[in-house]
Amino acid sequence: MSFSLKNYAPEDVLMVFAGIPISNGLSDGTFVEIEPAANMFEDVVGADGEVTRTKTNDRRATVRFRLKVSSSDNAKLSIVANLDKKTGGGIGPLMITVRGTAIVYAAAKAWIAKEPTVAFGAGPMEDMEWEIRCASLDVRIDAGFSDA
Questions:
Q1: Fewest C-beta in 10 Å: which of 16, 74, 80, 143?
Q2: 12-36+59-140: what fold?
Q3: pTM for the model
């Protein structure tokens, strides 16, 4: 039996939104999450059990960046959010890749859909979660992680 061991390192996840590298003060847990808005296909079943599926063509997606409150990237994202609120000029490309693999998530048009919720208290501050909406997300997943 052949045995294979692969390497993954969080620092190999490269994220850029609207020309801003998202790389400082990433959450120590999940720091990026990518969620498609819809299923690729919807299906219905008839009384006789026959199933018909319909392609949705909905390529929208939501990407969530989780950053420490102390991250300098929060200020950069805030500038983009404020620009978008004032002028509508906060739309930019989004790209997430994993170095050494062919994993690529890319959108030509993305924008900040929701600014972070913030809570202040006596304990440590919680991470900030930025919600980015993509008009059409292209996905390529070909892991190819390096051998250990």
A1: 143
A2: Pnp Oxidase; Chain A (2.30.110)
A3: 0.88
